[in-house]
């Protein structure tokens, strides 16, 4: 395949594949049989569980290719919870690079009534430059109606599908959700995600705590990530909190960069192994011939903005923390104290390439799992539905939500109290004594465009 990407939850690398899988078409007339033969041949070469695939003779080669792809996966929904296909390779590439058509919100879903029939969207974050931000929406805002229809547990997953939407806002106080009479009309646009939601230095108990909320590992923002750590370094931070609650993954190379920027004594680790990839036997043999060990091992690299002296790092985590996010955690565990605050992570220790037809005969983009990854100690034991378990457990269900980076924000505050259990008095910040816990309908926050919630990591094949 000439084009290769690696998927969302763990890592991402993209573009040229060395193996071309031939498929003969019938006098140039393309059929499902042709496409599905290509899918099976391609998967047989790259798919991590290729030996567990059904033989091509036992498959329905005339099936719709979208269905056929899933029919050849190994124990789909259990062993393989992650592989996917898109009918448009260009759309797939855009998604993996953070380009989507969106309102620009991610939200948690709460029940609004004792009967647990109706739900509210409570905004977890708003993307920079999005229609939602331009309309004035912000974290903590509450949506109770869409196009004058009450949101329920039956319609919540589809109610935001229209291009232009009328949002009916509400409020929350003393445990009760109420419509407040405010509404706004917002139209989706194609937007490049800026993954840096918030970075700040918090003075807390005599410490300088660097805080970063980062929502996708995008290589196009690597220099921006370096700049954040440059500000942390110049500001003399001596504690670090990385908020990955809403980060479902991205490029492995960007995940590796974050590791390099955080790890203690980077200079002493330069050229030491950071992580190791495992491929299927077929692809492993090819890589050994063409590239040797460099195809499997990633080493630490020097970064001038590495913080250098931290002995520990805090990660804020949730069920939406996946893949490339979990990779950073796993990379650092052999070298630092890694303290996890929140809820268990998603549990994805495998990643993918994007595979497309080199002859452009069809436009399908495949995103099958193609590798497993472990840290320098060969540890990779978080690939279960429980993922990484938190050291400090806390559920993000206290309303109203406070802004990201606010020392009183529920999950961040839990980390700060571990750093130093002080009585904090806010100055010029949104402070409310009328807080209460609400009942979550589901624990993982979701986006207005479901494709933004892909959980994966991807890489570029050798």
Features:
alpha+beta, 462 residues, 2-enoyl-CoA Hydratase, Chain A, domain 1, seven-stranded antiparallel beta sheet, Pdz3 Domain
Please give a structural write-up.
With 462 residues, the protein is α+β, with helices and mostly antiparallel strands. Among the domains are: 101-192, Roll (Pdz3 Domain), CATH 2.30.42; 196-349 and 373-424, 2-enoyl-CoA Hydratase, Chain A, domain 1. The protein contains ten helices and 25 strands. It has helices at 32-46, 65-71, 89-96, 131-134, 222-234, 252-262, 266-269, 281-290, 324-332, 410-419; strands at residues 84-86, 99-102, 105-111, 119-126, 142-146, 149-150, 164-173, 176-187, 189-192, 196-204, 207-214, 239-243, 249-251, 273-278, 297-299, 312-317, 337-342, 350-352, 365-367, 369-375, 392-393, 398-399, 436-437, 440-447, 456-458. The strands form seven sheets. Strands 3, 4, 5, 6, 7, 8 and 24 form a seven-stranded antiparallel beta sheet that branches. Strands 10-11-12-16-17-21 form a six-stranded mixed beta sheet, sandwiched between helices. Helix 5 (222-234) runs parallel beside helix 6 (252-262) and helix 6 (252-262) packs parallel to helix 9 (324-332). Residues 1-18 have low confidence and may be disordered.
């Amino acid at each position: 395949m000439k084009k290769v990407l690696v998927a969302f939850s763990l890592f991402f690398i993209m573009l040229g594949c060395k193996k071309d899988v031939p498929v003969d078409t019938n006098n140039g007339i393309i059929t499902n049989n042709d496409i599905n033969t290509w899918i099976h041949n391609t998967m047989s070469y790259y798919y991590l569980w290729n030996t567990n695939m059904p033989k091509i003779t036992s498959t329905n080669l005339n099936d719709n290719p979208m269905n056929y792809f899933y029919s050849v996966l190994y124990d789909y929904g259990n062993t393989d919870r992650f592989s996917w296909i898109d009918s448009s390779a260009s759309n797939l590439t855009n998604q993996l690079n953070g380009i989507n058509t969106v309102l620009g919100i991610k939200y948690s879903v709460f029940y609004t009534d004792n009967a647990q029939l109706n739900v509210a969207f409570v905004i977890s974050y708003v993307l920079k430059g999005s229609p939602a931000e331009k309309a004035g929406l912000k974290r903590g805002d509450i949506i109770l109606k869409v196009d004058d229809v009450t949101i329920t547990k039956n319609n919540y997953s589809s109610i935001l599908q229209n291009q232009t939407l009328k949002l009916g806002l509400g409020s929350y106080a003393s445990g009760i959700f109420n419509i407040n009479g405010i509404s706004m009309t917002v139209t989706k646009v194609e937007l490049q995600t800026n993954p840096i939601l918030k970075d700040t230095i918090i003075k807390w108990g005599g410490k300088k705590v660097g805080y970063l909320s980062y929502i996708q590992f995008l290589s196009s923002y690597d220099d921006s990530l370096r700049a954040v750590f440059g500000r942390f370094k110049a500001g003399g931070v001596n504690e670090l909190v990385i908020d990955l609650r809403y980060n479902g993954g991205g490029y492995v190379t960007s995940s590796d960069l974050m590791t390099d920027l955080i790890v203690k004594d980077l200079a002493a680790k330069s050229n030491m192994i950071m992580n190791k990839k495992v491929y299927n036997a077929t692809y492993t043999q090819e890589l050994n011939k063409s590239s040797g060990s460099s195809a499997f091992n990633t080493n630490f690299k020097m970064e001038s903005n590495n913080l250098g002296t931290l002995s520990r790092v805090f990660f804020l985590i949730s069920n939406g923390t996946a893949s490339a996010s979990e990779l950073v955690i796993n990379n650092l565990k052999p070298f630092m104290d890694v303290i996890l605050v929140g809820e268990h992570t998603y549990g994805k220790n495998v990643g993918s390439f994007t595979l497309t037809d080199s002859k452009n005969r069809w436009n399908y983009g495949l995103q099958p799992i193609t590798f497993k990854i472990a840290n320098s100690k060969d540890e990779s034991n978080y690939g279960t539905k429980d993922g990484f378990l938190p050291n400090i457990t806390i559920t993000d269900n206290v309303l109203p939500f406070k802004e990201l980076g606010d020392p009183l924000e529920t999950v961040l505050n839990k980390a700060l109290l571990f750093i130093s259990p002080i009585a904090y008095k806010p100055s010029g910040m949104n402070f409310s004594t009328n807080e209460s816990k609400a009942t979550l309908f589901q624990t993982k926050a979701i986006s207005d465009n479901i494709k933004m919630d892909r959980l994966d990591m991807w890489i570029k094949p050798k």
